[in-house]
Every structure is written in structure tokens, then in C-alpha cells.
Amino acid sequence: AYQHLWEASHVTLEEVLEKEPSLLEPVPSQERQNFQYRLSVHYLYYLGLLRRFDMAYDQMVQPQKRRLLRRLLDGVAGRVLELKDELVRVDMCETHCLDRVLQDLKLTPVRKREAGSFREMSRTEALILVQSTERARQGRLRATFMREIRKEEERDKKIRENGRQKFSQDQGAIIIQKVWKGYLQRKRIEQDRRKEMEFIGMLPSPNQTARLSILARASLGEEHRRIRQVEREEEFQNAIGKTHDALTETEGPDMKEKMKDQIRQWFIECQSVSTAAADPTVYTSSLLAPFALTGRFPDYPDEASGGSYLIFADKTPEQVLLSQSSVNLYSQYIGQVLPAVPSPTLSPASPVSPFPSGTSKDVRLELEMQAQENKKKDQEKNKEKGKKEKKKKNKDEKAKKVSQLPTEGRSVDSLFEELVVVGLIKKNVLVTLSDYIGDCLYLGSTLTMANKMPMPSLFDIRQNMALYGVLRLGSHDIHSMAPHVRSILLVGPSGMGKKMLVHAVCTETGANLFDLSPSNVMGKYPGKNGAQLLVHIVFKVARFCQPSVIWIGNTEKTFYKKIPKEERKMDPKRLKKDLMKATRQLSPGDRVMLIGTTSHPQLAELKGLCRFYERILFIPRPDYASRYVLWKRMIENRGIQLIQSLDISALARVSDGYTPGHILQTIQSVLSERRLLQLSKRPLAASEFVGHLARLDPIYREEEESLKEWYFKTPLGRKNMKFSKDLQEAEEARLAKEKKRRK
């Protein structure tokens, strides 16, 4: 099955790659929306391919196929990140409204495979969907009809009660039978209605045993395949070792003799070249002339330059001699002092020299001499500029030496242990990104068309953390090929799960967590150079033990505009300069990510904060869809099966303005152990949660508006606001022009 999934995904990948050139063509400004739509389609296709290749890689057993799949998976992931970067540039926003694109592609964001299925709906599935909708419509009509009947019965009952009269024994028995039969009929109708609602998927089935058993079997099958993966990998490695040993035993002696013969022949050929070059006048423009003067064998290549590999490469003796100390000898021979040229690095895939044989030596020498002359001219031309750069470089080198001296000679293990002891390395909480509950924004495109700026949903935040944090830190190859992102800033009210996202990234990638929050570094590594030493040790260990996450909680304190009097002893800004310098030195391949969290970014210097953090993710209060999912999932996580009497929709409406932290706190307060034991006798009601929720302080609209106002002052926020304003002005001008034309 997974082999077929791989093959189908590969066909889809080829189709997408054929459409790639259209994205590289220049796009006029008036066709920007069309380009944005096409880019979003490609982004969703690649997201689906990433999910499908990941599923196949997770369940594929053969080691050789898994290696090929991993390379393909890394390539697709890198392309996803490139398209994400391009979408941010085009949308001028970190979150994207893809609901219209999803609708056109017949996809839903809440499906497990999200953008992973591109097939059309079959006829049977369409019929089932239509039947379910029709049953739901009939059920609503029947409910309305029954409601009217009950109202008439209540009116008749009131009339009978008002006009009380005595009944005979037979009449009383008939009335009792009528009431009892009515009760039985209502009970049967209620049961039938519930079965119908369960059948059309409007209510959860009370008997989940069959469903849970199917899920358990599927989970066991997946775990069994993962165990087989480990076993097959061990067999593969053992087979490689046995093959290597067998080749060494059978063909090893012959290979050694052949290599020795090649080395002897190499020395003989080099000596022959030196002998032939005995007359220096013949080789005045040759780099072999110095060896003719010295009359000795060339030095055997050392291990650093490649050792005997240089001998077995497809190179002539002249090229081998040139790769050693020939340039320095030639400098002495012609009376000039030239800088030493490092030995050329050779790749096994292309051992042939790019220069042709014969006159290649003269051409190479002339090019080399010309390059040296051009270099001298450039040095003289930029002499003044070089002095300034030298001064700056000397300062950086001095600072570097100062920071390196205290850790010189110390092992990384001792530095790691030291950071653990002082509390700068902490154990992360085991949570996953799927634990960050939230739903997507379904009306983003509608709001955009109405010139209203949609706010990101919790689903968007989780998706961005997966792309910026998990994918990049999880693979060295992806980190090297994807657009480089060193730092992320999470901005949002308290209780939105910013710290939880940091721990989730560490859990998903197995990263080490370094805590450089101002409150945590206070009093640690004091002294004049203490901050420099602290940052140096942290980044040194983080690079060595990558992947690593450096978390800066309450990061606004590190970039304070003005330090409050009560926090001056803490000196929260003492790491600012060293952090910025160390972060700039992170290069592609260094899987070290800085993640800052803040609830009060207004207190920080905007310019410095935006310069330090390359990506800024704003987390607003959850919308209705996210609140509904939060209540539902959090109650179910307590082991409670939802019933029809518990109105989750009402709870989602009442909790407007409250954060996921508030909702979790309310559920924990209500669902105590004692209350869980009473569920069989007294089912849960929505009113039980309202009282506890009312005791908590919500996030008021003024606080969120203040955060939004700050976000739109950031570079990306300003671009977004300007673009939205230009669109609105263009739309107003178009409407005014049409109105004028009508008149």
C-alpha cells in the first residue's frame, strides 16, 4: 500500500514540477492576485506531497527505499519552506487565507491529510453525502412538526385542568393507559431520533468499542512496522559489514599490491619529470622548474591534503607537484614573494582537471600572475577602506579572543554540565504540536474581499511553528537548503500557549532547551565579561549539541526602552549586544533557533526587537471555531464522553475574550475527582463551567487592540497596512468612476 502511495505521490510531484516554470515568470502588478492564487495552489500541493511522503517514510520497511524516500522528503520539505517564504513576501503577512483555494481544490483543512488527497469525489461518496444532508433536513422538519404537536397538547391539557370534572373508573383507566402509551411512544421516538442522528453523524455513538478496536489495531500495525524497520536496518548494516569484510579478505591483498605499484610509478614519473626539466631555460614558465633545481623526490602528500588519494586521482605528475609547495618554490625562483595558495580540494565525482593538457601549465601560470597583479591593484585602490575594516576586524578578534579564553581547553561535556548546574539548560515539558488545540479561519478570503484584515487563528500559529521551527531543526539537509531563519518572536496575551509552543518544538525535534530569560540569567556569570562568557558558552554548547532552542521569555525586558527602577538590579539588558552578535554568526546548517515570547512588546525598543527577531508571529484571542474545539477536546481529554445535553456551542459563545489557559483552568476546577465519580448520576451541564469562568479576568478588547497596534508598526505589519490601504483607495476610486459614468 505504501509503495503505491509513493508511486502516486511521485506522479503528482512530476505534474507539479511541470507547472513550476510559470511561477518564475515576471508578473505585472495588476495580476498580483492571480499570481498569489497560483502560488497558494502550489503551496498546498507541496504540503500534501510532504504529508504523503512522510506517511510512506514512516511506514516503509526496506532500508534502501527509506534512504531514497528521505532524500525526496527533505527536498519537498525544502520546497515547501521556499514557497512559504515567497507567500510571506507576496501576502506581506505570516498567515495566509487559503480557504478559497481549499474550496476550489475540494479540500478541507480539518482533514487529517489536509492537502494530501487530490482525487475527485466518487459517485458513491457523493450519494452518501446527499443522503446524509437530506436526512438532516427531514429531521429538522420533523422536529418542527413535533414541536407544534406538543404545543397543541399542552394547550389541551391546560383546558382540561381548568375545567375539572369527575371521571368514572373506566374513564380513569382509559386516561392512565393513554398517558402510559404516550410515554412509551415518546421514549421510542427519542431512541429512534438518536439512532438517526448518530447514523447521519450529528451525534457521537455511545458504543465506541468497535471504533476504538479498529484504531487500536491500526496503531498496533504501525508500531509493528516501526519495529520491523529497526530490525531491517540492523540486517542491512550487518550485510554491509560482512560484504566489506569479504572483499577485504578476498580482494584486499591484490588491491594493496596494485596501490603500492601505483605509488612507486608515481614517484618514478615525478622523478622523470624533474630529470627532464634539468635545463631551467627550457622550463622558464613552468612550475616544474623548481623541482629541476632541487633534484629531489616530491613530498608525499600529508593526511590533511588527502594523503594517497591525491596519487590515485586521475591527475598527471605535473598537477600533483603543483598541488604541493610548487608556488612557494617558484616564488623563490623568480625572486617574488607570492602568498601561499591552498591545495585544491578534489571531488570524487569530478577528478579530471578542468584545464586541457599540453600548454595548460603556461595558461595556468599566466592566469595566476594576472590574478596576483589585479589583486595588488585592488588592494592599493581599497587601502583606506581596508584600514577601517582592519580596525573593526581587530576589535571583533579581540572580543572573540576574550570570549574564547575562559573555555579554552575545556570539553563540551564539562560546559554542558556547568549549564545544567546553573539552570541555563532545562528539561522541556513533553508536549507535541498536536496538543496545541485550535481551528483554522474559514472566512479569511471573505474578510479580505470586504477590506477587513483577518487575524491569524490558532491553527495558523501551529502551522507556522511547524514550518519555521520543527522542519528546520528536525533535519540538517532541510536547514541547509531552506531560507535561513535564526529567530522567532511569539507575541500575544498571557495564557495563549506561547511557552507551550517552545516546549512542543523541543519535543518534536529532540532539541536541547536553553533558558536565557532575564529572570533566569539574573546573578549568573557576574563581572565585566560575565555576559560575554555566558553567551559564548551557551552558543558553543548549542552548536555542538544541535538541534538546540534558545528561549528568551519576557524578551521585551532584554530590549527595554527604559528599565523600571525595581528591575535595575536585575540588569535585564546586559545580554543584548552579545546575543545580537552571536545570533548573526549562525549560518545555514547550524540548527540553533532563538525563540522569544512576550505579552508586553510595547515596553521594548521596536527597532532593536525587529532587527533581532526575523519572524514575528502575533497570537490573538481565539475565535469561536477555536474556542469550540478547545472546549470539546479539553473535556474529552479528561476521559469524558460528550452528551447532547452539554451545550458546547453555548460555552464557546460565553467564553469570548478568554484564552486557552482560562478554559483549561476552568475545566480543571469543575472536573475534580469527586465530580467525575458523580457523572453517572448527574451528567455535566454547561452552567457548571460558567461560574468558574466568570471568576477569571478575560483579555479585554483594549489590551488586544494595543497589541494589534504594536504589530502593525513592525516592518511586515507596516507593509501589510500600506498594501491594504492602497487596495481600499483603488476600490474607492473604481466605485467613484463607475458612479460618475452612470451619471
Automatic annotation (TrEMBL):
Coiled-coil boundaries: none
Name of the featured protein: IQ and AAA domain-containing protein 1-like
Keyword DNA damage: no
Family under the similarity heading: Belongs to the AAA ATPase family.
Keywords on record: ATP-binding, Nucleotide-binding
Classification via Gene3D superfamilies: 1.10.8.60, P-loop containing nucleotide triphosphate hydrolases
ATPase AAA-type core domain residues: 488-616
PROSITE patterns reported in the protein's UniProt record: IQ (PS50096)
Pfam families registered for this protein in UniProt: AAA (PF00004), IQ (PF00612)
Region (Disordered): 371-407
Keyword Protease (UniProt): no
Bias (Basic and acidic residues) ranges: 371-387
Organism lineage string: Eukaryota, Metazoa, Chordata, Craniata, Vertebrata
GO MF annotations, alphabetized: ATP binding; ATP hydrolysis activity
